[in-house]
Amino acid sequence: MGVWCLVVLARLDRNLAEAWHRNPIPSTTIPQSSDLALHPPESYFHITDFLIIACGILYTLCYIFYTVRTYSDRYLAGTVQFLSATMAYEIYYAYVCTTTAFQRACFFVWFLFDITFVTVALRYAYKEGERGRTIWKLVWQVPVWMAFLWYVGRVWPDEREQRTAFWTGLYLELPIGWGQVWYLLKRGDTKGQSLEIWITRYLGCITAFLVFIWRYLNVPENWSYVGSWWSIGGMIVTLLPETVYPFVYVWAHRKEREKMKNA
User: Fold this and answer.
1) Cα 225–49–20 angle (5° rounding)?
2) pLDDT tens digits along 20-67
3) How would you classify residue 13: left for phi > 0, otherwise alpha for psi between -120 and 50, otherwise beta?
């Protein structure tokens, strides 16, 4: 979930710092040096800032709602092993995308949310006999995912590995919505899920996509891959289950109430 927040954080390396001092922009985040070289309007950076901050807040709330619901229902609508990929993402791109203490702190906060979610899920949604095996799987899966991210960054290099961060973030997000809809249909109840989780996840996806769409519309030379069919298709396929989710949720909630009445 939070991977999209991580994609959009910036790294202040020497060349970028020089460009920043030559072209100071009153911006909360540090923009791409390649963007600064093309002199886009200041509004470009302000709107990018707004979308990034909104995305971070939405995904933080989403993590909180997921954790609370998993605790209250004693059920996880998914597998905790999926978080091995997101934790690897946060660790790896904390190194690749940042140099300042504040930026690393942002990554660390999201990583703490992951750890908290994993801890709650293992404690309250997994049987005691499953916890040890699951923890061991997480221990080896995280470095494997980190090695994969490092490899794709070497295969398709660019400034601060934004290209590979975009693609891996997009396709890490894609299965979440589909998985949540599948659990509703399979179980016929809403355990481990809520409309609060859905709305923050849905809006988080949209704002994350808008960050890159906005960049593509204003500086297409640097973000051309955002306009590719693979990118557009990935966004559509990711948002499709999120769009129909509330209707499936209402259906599952009714089924749940019927089961309770007949019990």
Assistant:
1) 85
2) 444 554 444 555 666 565 567 777 788 888 898 898 899 999 999 999
3) beta
DSSP letter at 32? P
Give the list of residues 6+ apart from residue 66 with CB closer than 8 angstroms, or none. 1, 117, 197
Contact 163, 226 (CB under 8 A): no
- Dist CA 260 CA 263 (whole Å): 5
Contact 86, 66 (CB under 8 A): no
Contact (CB, 8 A) for 83 and 132: no
* Alpha-carbon distance values, 86 to 82, 83, 94, 199, 203 (Å): 7, 5, 12, 20, 19
Q: How far apart are CA 48 and CA 35, in angstroms?
A: 12
- pLDDT at 16 (0 to 100): 40
AA letter at 6: L
* DSSP structure class, residue 167: H
Residue 15 — very low, low, confident or very high, per pLDDT cuts 50/70/90? Answer: very low
pLDDT tens by residue, 189-201: 999 999 999 999 9
- For the chain, the domains span 3-262
Token pair in block for residue 79: 């597998």
Contact 86, 110 (CB under 8 A): no
Tokens representing 162?
Answer: 């934004």
Measured between alpha carbons, how far is 8 from 215 in angstroms, rounded to an integer?
11
Spatial neighbors of 91 by CB under 8 A, at least 6 apart, are 107, 111, 142, 146
Looking up tokens 């923009």 gives: 31
